[in-house]
Amino acid sequence: MKIAALVGSNRKDSYNKLLVKYMKEKYAGKLDIDILPIDELPFYNQDKEMDPPAIVEDLRERIKNSDGILFATPEYNASISGMLKNAIDWFSRVDLVMVNKPAMIVGASMGAMGTVKAQIQLRQILNAPGVGTLTLPGNEVFVGSVQNKMDEQGNLTDEQTVQFIDNVVDNYVQWIKRVEA
Ligand SMILES: Cc1cc2nc3c(=O)[nH]c(=O)nc-3n(C[C@H](O)[C@H](O)[C@H](O)COP(=O)(O)O)c2cc1C
C-alpha cells in the first residue's frame, strides 16, 4: 500500500522525521511510505491556487496516487506547526486530493504529553470539508518524552511504544482495506 507521509517539522534532527523514517523501514512489507518534501512548499496563496507552483502539482499527484496519508505532527504552542497547516491548506483547494483518503496520525514530542493538544486540533482540521480524510478512529499515537525512547540512529527503543505502533499499523492496514472495499 502506497502511503504519502506529511511530516510537520523541518528540523534536521526532527524526532517526527526520525519516527516516520523508522516506520518506513520497519513496515516496508506492509506500507510503502513516500515522505513528501512539504518543507519546500511556498506559503499558501489563494491568488496562486489555480496556477500553483510545480511542487504543489507534484505533491498533489503523489497524494492522489497514494492509498492513504500518514501525518506526523510535532506540537508547537499547543497546536500543529505552521508548515503542516500550510501543506494541508494547499492540498485542500482546487484539486481535493485528500478527501476520502484513509489517514493515520502519529506525533512525537519531548514533553510528557506527546502532542496530545496538536493531534486534537489536527483531527478537527482533517474533518474540514476540503480536507475530508477518513481518519483511523482511536489509535492515538502520542510518543511523549521521545528523547528517551529513541537511539541515536532514530530507532524506537521503548518496547511498549514499539508494540503499540505495531498494533496501530495493523489497524491502519485493515482500515484502508475497509475503506477501499
Ligand atoms: C515553537 C515551538 C513551540 C513548542 N511548543 C510545544 C508544545 O506546545 N508542547 C510540547 O510538548 N512541545 C512543544 N515544543 C517542543 C517540541 O515538542 C520539540 O521541539 C520537538 O522536538 C519538535 O518536534 P521535532 O523533533 O519533530 O522537530 C515546541 C517547540 C517549538 C520550536
Describe this structure in words.
With 181 residues, the chain is of the alpha/beta class. The protein has one domain (2-180): 3-Layer(aba) Sandwich (Rossmann fold), CATH 3.40.50.360. Helices cover 36% and strands 15% of the residues. The chain has five helices and six strands, in the order βαβαβαβαββα. Strands 1, 2, 3, 4, 5 and 6 form a six-stranded parallel sheet that branches. The longest helix has 22 residues, at 159-180. 39% of the residues are buried. The model has no long low-confidence stretch (mean pLDDT 97). Flavin mononucleotide is lined by residues 9, 11, 14-16, 74-78, 108-111, 113.
Protein traits:
alpha/beta, Rossmann fold, 181 residues, single chain, NAD(P)H-dep_reductase, 6-stranded parallel sheet, binds flavin mononucleotide, FMN binding, FMN_Rdtase-like_dom, 6 strands, Flavoprotein-like_sf
